[in-house]
Write a structure and sequence with these properties.
The chain is mainly α and 298 residues long. The protein folds into two domains: 225 residues, 3-Layer(aba) Sandwich (Rossmann fold); 57 residues, Orthogonal Bundle (Histone, subunit A). 54% of the residues lie in helices and 5% in strands. The protein is built from 13 helices and five strands. It has a three-stranded parallel β-sheet, with helices on both faces. Strands 1-5 form a two-stranded parallel sheet. α2 links the parallel β2 and β3. The longest helix has 26 residues. InterPro entries: Dimethylallyltransferase, IPT, P-loop_NTPase. Pfam families: IPPT.
């Protein structure tokens, strides 16, 4: 299992190792699962996917709500398939919630209630994330900290609490099907920030605004509850550029700032949810090379 914050280079490292060791990549990303979301998700290119076989890319339509339960089911099926063919799977991604579900098992929380979820989504819009987190903190400060300022998790936790009087963390987890060796890495702050800005700028130049317009033609960005695909970082800004409501330079700055904040949350989640201490890029490569050389697990 390989993870790193956005733009740190985890896909490039996975490709390098995949070519060297004949690996197959199982993607753990909440948005590369969607067909058509290519530029804004930094999805591996067709050439990359031809060089190293990838699983769980382009498995859902943008009108679908892809969730962690479906991810675990499909990821474990892909891992089993790879192993049965005598190959080695490498789980790669930055959606820590998905990685934690593979590592620890699925949360045994009840299914979502669309009506309650819609009410909480409306409150998030009207009152803001801090207000919802304050509500959680009044009854369970530890649960509020566990949210790590993630709006989706905060809405889900609030929804479950209002229906059951309990937060998701109290329901426990199912038994994971496989065991994983977790490797995480990052880059020095200034270097990572530079990579983030450069990648966002390249995305806009590659046609991200047009991709966002394509998405808007299929899924209403103003629908409530907020569609899953429109929770992907930067697509709203890209759509604003397409409509002439935001200059590309201004949008690049806004998305880069949001991406840096997201990268910080990812690193926090890696430590708290995966129990991993981020290494340098070279340390991560050495560790994975040693594990793969010893025929380590996925």
């Amino acid at each position: 299992m390989l993870t790193a914050p956005t733009a740190a280079g985890k896909s490039a490292l996975a490709l390098e190792l995949g070519r060297e060791f004949g690996l197959e990549v199982v993607s753990a990303d909440a948005f590369t699962v969607y067909r058509g979301l290519d530029i804004g998700t930094a999805k591996p290119t067709p050439q990359d996917r031809e060089a190293v076989l990838h699983h769980l890319l382009d498995v859902a339509d943008v009108t679908e709500a892809y969730d962690v339960a479906r991810f675990v089911r499909e990821a474990e099926a892909a891992i089993l398939d790879v192993l049965e063919r005598g190959r080695v799977p490498l789980v790669v991604g930055g959606t820590t919630f998905y990685l934690a579900a593979l590592l620890r098992g699925l949360p045994l929380t009840p299914p979502a209630d669309p009506e309650v979820r819609a009410e909480v989504e409306a409150e998030l819009t009207a009152r803001g994330l801090d207000a919802l987190l304050a509500d959680i903190a009044r009854t369970d400060p530890a649960e509020a900290a566990r949210m790590e300022r993630n709006p989706r998790r905060t809405v889900r936790a609030t929804e479950v609490y209002r229906r059951t009087g309990r937060y998701p963390g109290s329901f426990g987890h199912s038994r994971p099907r496989f065991r994983y060796a977790v490797t995480a890495f990052t880059r020095p702050g200034p270097e990572l920030e530079g990579r983030i800005t450069a990648r966002v700028r390249d995305m806009f130049a590659a046609g991200w605004p047009e991709e966002a317009a394509w998405l808007a033609a299929r899924v209403d960005p103003l629908a409530r509850p907020r569609p899953t695909v429109w929770q992907a970082l930067g697509y709203r800004e890209a759509l604003a550029v397409h409509h002439g409501q935001l200059a590309p330079e201004e949008a690049t700055g806004q998305v880069a700032v949001a991406s840096r904040q997201y990268a910080k949350r990812q690193l926090t989640s890696v430590r708290s949810q995966l129990g991993a201490a981020p290494l340098t890029v070279s340390e991560a490569r050495q560790r994975l090379t040693a594990l793969l050389g010893a025929q380590g697990g996925p």
